[in-house]
Every structure is written in C-alpha cells, then in structure tokens.
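G.,

No rush on this.
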Amino acid sequence: MLDDIDIKILSVIQKNAGFRLSEISKRVGVSPTPCWNQIKNERIRSDF
C-alpha cells in the first residue's frame, strides 16, 4: 500500500519525469536519500 510520501513522489514524477532527484525531494518535503529509497522501493515501481 502506498503511503503519503509515495503518493506525493508519484504525483511529482507524473507531472514531470525529467525532474532531478533534488527537485523531487524538495517538492515532496523529504531529503534526497529517503526520497530515492522510496523511488527505488518495489511499492512505487510496481505502481508505474
């Protein structure tokens, strides 16, 4: 199940898949490392 951070990340990526990790993490409100961990997590990848 997706949590709030996962949903925010997906929303940002769907709006512009060309954003750098730093921009995605800034828009989501988390630091780059946890943001990247969420992106590469199977829960998000399986929902693309």
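When you get to it, here's the other one too:
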Amino acid sequence: MNETRDLVQRAIAALWDSASSLGTDEKAHAELAGLVDAVADVEAQLAGLRLFLLHEARLTGADAVIAEAKQSVRTTAAQATSALKLSQDLAERFPLIGAALNDSVVSLAQAEAIVAGLKKLPHRLTRTEMEQCQRSILEHAQDLGPSELRVLASRLAEVVDPEQAEADEAKRLEAEERAAHRNRFLRLAPDHHGSVRITGQLSVSDAALLTAQLDALMPPASSYSDTGEIPTRDMRRADALVLLTQTAANAGTLPQRGCDRPTVHVIMSLDTLKGGLGRTGLFSLDEVDAISAKEARRLACDADLIPIVLGSESQPLDVGRKSRTFPSAIRAALIERDKGCAFPNCNVPAAGCEAHHIVPYVKGLGPSSLANGVLLCPYHHRVVEPADWPLTSNDWEVRLDEVTGLPWFTPPKHIDPSRRPRQHSRFVLEQITLEPPPEAPPCPDPVEAPSVPEVQLVAARPSADREQERARLEQIRGNPSPAWAGAG
C-alpha cells in the first residue's frame, strides 16, 4: 500500500515539476493547455477508481471503509451518500458510463449528469436497451456539458421505443406534478440576527407564476445609484418579493411592466394542445422541468398566459416593426428561440437578458425583428456591441444560421486568430435528432450474447473530430478498463 501511495505521489510531483518549468511563449502556452488536459484526464480516472473501490468495499462487507467515507471531513454527508449511490449505479446499472469515466472519456460531473438522466427512463427498459442508451449518450460526451447530457439522456426513450415514449413522458410528468404538490412548503425562520431565512419548494408551474411576478417588479440596477449600493440579482429579487407583498397589501393587483402585464409563456405543439400528450415547456426553465398539457390548460384558466403553439398562428413571431426597442411579440419569440443568453457558455436566464440588434438600429440599418435580434445578458451585450459599423476583425460578429435560425458568434482575432465560429451548447443539444436503430434480425439463441444494434444520434453540425472520438470509444468498448471489467 505504501508503494502505491509513493508511486502516486511521484507522479503528482512530476506534474508539479512540469508546471513549474513552463515558460511564457506560445510553445509554453501549448504545453500548459496539454498539462491542463492531462490533469483533467487523471482527475476523471482517479474519480472512477475511487467509486470502484467504494463499491468493492460494499460488496466485500468492508463496513469500516464505508463508515470512514461517510464521516470524512473532506466531504459533506450528502456528498458522501451521493458518491456511494453513484458507485453502485455505475457498477450495477450503468457499467459503460463507469468504464468511460475510468478512461477519462467523461468527467465525474458528466457521469453524474448522465446517470441522473438515464434514471429518468422508464423502468420497463431491458438491460440490452439500457446498454444501447449508454452507448448513444457517450457518442456526444465530447460535444455536450453535464446539463445538456442530462437532458439528452432523459430523452433516449424516444430511441428504444418511440411510440411509447410520449405516453410514458405524460405519465411521468403527471406523477411529478402530484409529488410536487404533495411536497410543497414555505418556511420562514428567524436567524436571531435581524433577518428571516425563507426556504420553500413549489411545483414548476407555481414557481413559474411567482417568477413572472418577481421579474416584473425587480428594480433595475440603476435605481440603486443614489444609495451607493451595487446589488446582486438575488438581492434585487429579494427587494422584488417585498414590493410584491406591499403591492398586494395596498391594492391587490400588480403593476404593468412597460406595456405588458407579468406573463407566463407556455410552449407546446399543436398536437399536444389537441391531444393532451407530449411535452409542454415554460420559458426560463430547464427543458427537463416541463409540465404536462393538462397543467398548461389549468394555468390558462386563471393566469396572464401567452400560449406559443408551435406550428400555429396564436402568437406572431416576426412583425418587423420599425421601433427602436423590440416589441413584446418579438421578445417572446427571442426567448422561445434563445432560452437565455445566447453567448457560448453563459447561462443567464431570459429574464435577465436584453435584446441585441445584430445590425445596429442606431445606424438606420437594422430593424427590431426576430431575424435581427439575439438575447444577451448585460455583460455579454457590452462585449458584443460594436463600437462602429461595419464590423472589423477586432469585433465580435453575430450571425444567424441560415438553416436553423440559431445564433453563432465569431470571436475577434485577438481572442482566436483563426476566428472559428462558436455556438452555445444548448443549441448543439437542440440540433441533435434521435433516430431509432435499423431493424435488427431475430435474436439468436439466448445463450449467446446478442450484438446490440448501434443507435444513430445525428447532429446537425458534427464536430470535425467525431470519427476520431468514435474510434476511441470503440476501443474503450472492446478493451474495458481492468477496474471496471468485472463490474456489474
């Protein structure tokens, strides 16, 4: 054991030596990037090894090891419990994800997200179908982050059984809504230092109503200039809650926000509206946290609600008015399309974003229309806003894809000399279409191990190195890590 520890320490010391000897030229920058990637790979492999060891401790009855993991001061009790549960899931239910983690194909955060999404799939899936889902999700591990992988994993039932997927989704959403209503609470507890701590839990639909009212009342940051305070968004939302209670106490109604009353936007297909099956989304909420069509109709009975029925004309998407600011219908369409700040890797929700003219309005060139707009948070709005027109290679360039209508961002040359366009990962996720596998021949004798048909996940814009990653994945499947080879 001491020899193993010494070997690990020598490897870490070698990494420190490499980091300490780096220079400052471009070659050193390339070495630094390679070193960061190497440490990330090792970090994933060590995380996989630790989870494997925890599972071995459980199987062999090493209670002292489990107790030490739970009581360790290096983690919280919740983190320790989560790690133990994840170790069991990877070994017994999702061995391909465990092998990918151990071989650094995915990070620990990605593995946790994938497992969380896969556990939302129907329990009726067979072991072979679940393996098929694992292979499918791993093909996109190099392109999607944890949040997007969680969403994609939860949608894989569409691949193995497309006909039953919608019915299963409707049942799951209704069950979650019943559980959310059953588990709702609001607690106010004084901290005995002049404040009251507010904690609670609401259903997705009820929380959307509350969020819409708070966003309508949230004071702008400029309103705090006289006090010299620089409030965070959470502080401004707390002030909005106080304003909400004061307004309700004084008048019983809420004020208007510009020309619009506070509204909740509900997105559903025309078939969902008519038939009652399928996913219904709410603006500013994660796609997994959707509501059923039944719940959407309930909201419509007694709420300021804008239905955006995709494929219908219930809400105009592009009126093209020549106004300096974006009309409410166009802003609603921007929110539905961009879901929040469209700048790559930014996750500011739509409520905290501004509509940006791709071609500046002040030059008399760009209309306030869907085809000339993009949602950006205030920070990235300032980053992208050009100092002059036309653009130069020193400016960020925003353009909308001719096929998908989704925004792309081209960095200035001082950030990326090659000026390669970038896109938010949420748009990459949207462009992934799930396709059922081709018809497989009849299953052979059950004694033999049947081959699992490949599932094709087609991305609208595959990365250039997709074939290399696929070959690497095939190598992993054919030569699993020794640590996970016997798991499950």
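DSSP finds 18 helices and eleven strands in the chain. The radius of gyration is 26 Å.

Enjoy the weekend,
O.
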